[in-house]
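Journal club side-thread
Mid-discussion, someone asked how the predicted structure for our own chain would compare to the paper's figures. Pasting it here so we can look after the session.
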Amino acid sequence: MTVLPDLDAVRKNLGRSLFGMVAGPEGPANRVRIHDTPGPRWFDEDRPIRRVHADASMFVGGLSALLLQSLHPLAMAGVADHSDYRADPWGRLQRTSTFLAVTTFGPAADAQRAVDRVRGIHQRVRGVAPDGRPYHAADPHLLEWVHIAETHSFLLAHQLYGAEPLDQRGRDGYVADTARVAVALGVPEPPRTESQLAQRIEEYRPELRGTAAGRDAARFLLVTPPLPLVARGPYGVLAATSVSMLPAWARKPLLLPYFPPIEATAIRVAGRVLVGGIRWALTATR
């Protein structure tokens, strides 16, 4: 007699594993503190940023954002020189996800403290890029590039793979919400509508190019991440889905493929199945 696995137990175990990967060992305690601590928040419950950042599409958007951000040589130089993404990629992911959770859902005082910590780190991150130009992570121009690449990627992922995609008003609201965090981090005039966001990305394009550090980071993120064998297949789908979100002009500098017919069909379907599976698993942990 074949004994079927307990589907609910499988779902909960998978959800705990995924949540642990992105939130770390302190994830459950942080979640209680972020969501249950009383007090005012930066964003009300009906704001678009809460819908986007709570959705499983963030898994796809986050990876796509890292690839897009790497196209700015000075931003990438700062990551290559000062980040521990190779030695501790999951720790970096967990710190980033905690920052997003605190600023999106947490008490206003905790959100401000999180921003202050990041600004303190940025003040210490400075150096000289391989092309001889100095960089400083607190440079508002570099901060804005990181912000708009992230905002674009999260919003696009949500439109393609989110449970409840936003209408135009909601998309503009999401960009305006993220601008609140960007200003706190030191970006003077971030875009506040979807059209402004697209225009700002176009304005940065002359500065963007592939670098050895950027291609190395892309190879690490897409091909050789530290994952157990059982996770390689699903992660491959995640990687392909994230790459397919990049515009054509962003692929060549990173030596990434561009196959529109496949991306619009097979990869899009696979991405929806994967994100749906992640969503199914994670809802069991709430």
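Post-session note: The mean pLDDT is 93.
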